[in-house]
Amino acid sequence: MRSNHVRDWSLRALGVAAVVAATLGFSAAPASAHNYPVGYAPAENSVVTEQPGRFTITTNDTLLNLDGTGSGNAMRISGPTSAPLYYGDGCVTLFGPKLETTAQLGQPGEYTVTWQVVSTDGHPVSGSYTFTWQPAAGQVLAPGLAAAPTCGAATSTDAAATPADASATPGTAQSVVAPTDLLWIAGAALAVILAVAATLLLTRRRPTP
Fold first, then answer.
1. Short-list 100, 98, 95, 89, CA closest to 151
2. What are the b/e assignments for 173-201, b being 16+ CB within 10 Å?
């Protein structure tokens, strides 16, 4: 009889351990789910001959709009490399997994798009890429700005229009630790406590053979 009791208790303990492991797995997964770019428009390393007008960064998942104004998300267009100026008004718009801004380009040459987005898990992710501007005949060239533009206070803040690291290596993404990780850790700890409490309660209620 005691052998059966020990076997039942062992099976119950294994079941609880499986539940705890699964809970920890689901809790920890979102903490590493940083968004990453899956497409650019204009395309990376492409040669552009007509004013694109609109610039788009497409990521693999929905981006966060922390305060309804796009704060934390930004995009800057600068070039050409030989004498860089800034183009556009610094304002960005979110469309699910996409970040967009509008701008007209200036003199021919290599241009850089520097961007920052807030991932689904709350982490800021940034990067940059380049393309070549070779305007066809008849294209109207923009004068450009000596300083990076910032969107108006009514729709954004200065921090929202400033990427976290404007010197990010082209084609790479960077991330920093965010306080939201603490929420996942707390949830995992709570799941463990509840599982242990349930095990103790079931053990006490089982009648002694």
1. 89
2. bebeebeebeebeeebeebeeebeeebee
Distance in angstroms (rounded) separating the CA atoms of residues 6 and 4: 5
Report pTM.
0.59
List CB contacts of 84: < 8 A, sequence separation 6 or more. Answer: 78, 112
In this predicted model, what pLDDT tens digit does every residue of 83-114 receive, in sequence order?
999 999 999 999 999 999 999 999 999 999 99
Question: Could you count the other beta carbons within 10 Å of the beta carbon of residue 122?
Answer: 17
Closest among 96, 118, 116, 122 to 30, alpha carbons compared: 122
For residues 128 and 117, give the distance between their C-alpha atoms in angstroms, rounded to a whole number. Answer: 12
Distances (CA, A) of 102 to 90, 92, 191: 9, 8, 46
Q: What does each C-alpha distance from 59 to 30, 126, 139, 185, 192 come to in angstroms?
A: 16, 11, 30, 26, 34
Angle at 204 between CA 198 and CA 209, to 5 degrees: 135
